[in-house]
């Protein structure tokens, strides 16, 4: 019985020594600060990606390839109407590049509704209003949509878009 008591006492002391409320609070505060910083960085990726669509000639191969750097190499684009997601990679962007040869998009408003990040994953919910203009005919169409992005932080600590779905 004395052995059991000694073991329990030592265990209690050992475990109580491993908890440091001050250190735990510091860790929590650091994590919250990093999450806020990540949230700002994630928002910046989303806004920069859309800004690049508006301000660059994405029909140009070099410019378009630079734009695809916003995305992971295993980027998934979710289709509508119950179709499966398309694994874009660098090759899968071919159809998107062709589309940018015939249209130009101007965003009137991009509103980020929600951002959350943890470790190396983040998600962003946002909606926007834009105008799509056909380059040949100069016809314009108003667009209004919502989107959900999932981003991953790569080895260089850069946020990249891994998954995108529009409604």
UniProtKB/TrEMBL annotation:
What PROSITE patterns has UniProt attached to this entry? Answer: PROKAR_LIPOPROTEIN
| Entry-linked InterPro entries | NTF2-like_dom_sf
Q: What is this protein called?
A: DUF4440 domain-containing protein
Q: Which organism is it from?
A: Sediminicola arcticus
């Amino acid at each position: 019985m004395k052995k059991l008591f000694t073991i329990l006492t030592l265990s209690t002391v050992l475990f109580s020594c491993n908890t440091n409320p001050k250190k735990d609070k510091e860790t929590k505060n650091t994590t919250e600060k990093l999450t806020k910083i990540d949230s700002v960085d994630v928002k910046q990726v989303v806004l920069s990606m859309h800004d690049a669509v508006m301000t660059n000639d994405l029909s140009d191969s070099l410019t378009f390839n630079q734009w695809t750097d916003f995305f992971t190499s295993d980027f998934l684009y979710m289709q509508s109407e119950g179709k499966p997601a398309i694994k874009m990679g660098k090759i899968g962007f071919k159809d998107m590049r062709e589309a940018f040869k015939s249209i130009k998009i101007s965003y009137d408003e991009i509103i980020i509704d929600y951002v959350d990040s943890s470790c190396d994953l983040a998600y962003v919910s946002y909606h926007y209003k834009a105008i799509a203009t056909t380059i040949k005919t100069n016809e314009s169409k108003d667009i209004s949509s919502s989107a959900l992005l999932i981003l991953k932080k790569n080895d260089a600590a850069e946020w990249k878009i891994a998954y995108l779905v529009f409604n």
